[in-house]
Fold this sequence. Notes:
The complex is a heterodimer of chains A (about 280) and B (about 270).
Chain A: E1 3-9, H1 17-33, E2 38-40, H2 55-58, H3 65-73, E3 78-86, E4 92-100, E5 103-109, H4 121-124, E6 134-136, E7 139-145, H5 153-160, E8 165-170, H6 184-200, E9 203-208, E10 210-213, E11 216-219, E12 223-225, E13 231-234, E14 241-247, H7 249-258, H8 261-264, H9 267-282
Parallel strand pairs in A: 1-2, 2-3, 7-8, 8-9
Antiparallel strand pairs in A: 1-14, 3-4, 4-5, 6-7, 9-12, 10-11, 12-13
Chain B: H1 6-22, E1 28-32, H2 37-50, E2 55-59, H3 67-80, E3 83-86, H4 90-97, H5 105-126, E4 129-131, H6 137-142, H7 163-173, H8 177-181, H9 194-198, H10 202-214, H11 219-224, H12 229-241
Helix pairs in contact in B: 1-2, 1-7, 2-3, 2-7
Amino acid sequence: MDFSVALAQIKPKLGCLAENRTLVESSIERAIADKADLAVFPELALTGYFLRDLVPDVALRLDSPEIARICELSRHIAIAVGFVEVSDDYRFFNSAIYAERGEIRHIHRKVYLPTYGLFDEQRYLARGERFRAFDTRFGRMGLLICEDMWHLSAPYILAMDGATTLVCLSSSPGRGISEDENLGSTIAWQKLTSTTAMFLNCRVFYCNRVGFEDGVNFWGGSEVVAPSGRVASRARLFEEDQTITRIDGGELRRERIFSPMMRDENLSVTMKELRRIERGRDC
Amino acid sequence: MGDVNVKLLRRLLVAFIREEVTKVGIRKAVLGLSGGIDSALVAYLAAEALGPENVHACIMPYKTSNPESEAHARLAAEHLGIHHQVIEITPMVDAYFALFPEADSMRRGNKMARERMTILYDHSAALPALVLGTSNKTELLLGYGTLYGDMASALNPIGDIYKTQVWQLSEEMGVPRDIIEKQPSADLWAGQTDEQELGFTYREVDKLLYSMVDLRMSREELEKSGFAPDFIATVSARIQNSHFKRRLPIIAKVSNRTIDRDFRYSRDWGK
């Protein structure tokens, strides 16, 4: 089916749940006014990124009024949004929910928490343990949060689980200036989204944030990538933006006919070899 | 170290100043304008970010400062149309050293740098405005600056770019040629130049620092790339020995939550 996706390239305020809620809700209203069917937000859109010791203070339970409000709004438009989730046993996760028709369809807890260079996520957050595709009104989807996408196995698992749309919520810090017109992080992500779409014959919706936190910039450039790897739309770099992209449902069908890599992908060979490698590592 | 895309760098640093100043509810910035290239560049970036009417420059000569420095500072300020004021630090500095006439040039230079800092922070409160730092990455890594003096600021837009890149970006921003082309000098005493005092040129050391810090090359790799072992040793020692200048004061830990060790928040907390 054809549908429209809004990528809400917002600038959350660090640790300000109430203000970020307002920001997210007004983006949702704008997306509804623009006749979008799905609104995608960045990673940790409700909280900001470099939270450090603020993590427990801004964490939300899945039964919190904030999440209930997102579900309520999802009666009008499907929503994918990132936040800090606290579980009953007080683990804190970098999570994203996908809400549609008034209910949470899927919750993804970030599996790969970067803890190197400028990142320190594992110090503050618990690791998710699964990648699962789920059904939506727009076909089967998979959620990824930023660093998840840098692990080839993550989008692969989702695609093998039947996802034809990969939604990646991101807070990517801009870095790596060179003679190129783009930062190193921009160049790398643009290769990654396009290559992932092309390898897996999936659409990729990549929503990145903008703004600065303690001198670190987030570079924006949110993208809708077609299953061929073609970039269908790209939001502005470094500035707030909200793109609306019409998704041509037929393009997925045609791409899967032209390049039936996913049809031919041999799960049993992959599993056999991975098990062999795993056994070898145990020795 | 290759060239950088100066248009992208300009865009990033201008956005940095605009966002990090305005998000704390302030519109203005204040900086010390020495007549050198680093502070001139920061003034150009700030004027673009905040509008010239929101940038205040303090020109703070001492009696032994090269008169050309003040002239260059005025040139930059007038070219930009930013507010500027000359505040001589001679009376304050001389009053203090009348008590310690034996003080050497290092102590005198540090005192001048810290005198200027107190003036900038007074203006910060008076305007109100945030103090912009003007130390580049080369100086910060080599510790070539005065702790709580010229190294003190609220925001530093050029602390992650090397001197060589300061030159490139200054060309892009239209900093006057006279300022770009003159010999870098701390101007703490007559005839002082940075490169003479450091014992190597900025271009040489920037290549080494970039390979060492940014690319994380091992000592063997650095030697293989043609850097002299003595040069590598000198620069490594400078980085290590000046590291205290790049950190907050250390705190004796006695509680379970000690500031900056296990009490960790970003400065932009709530912003």
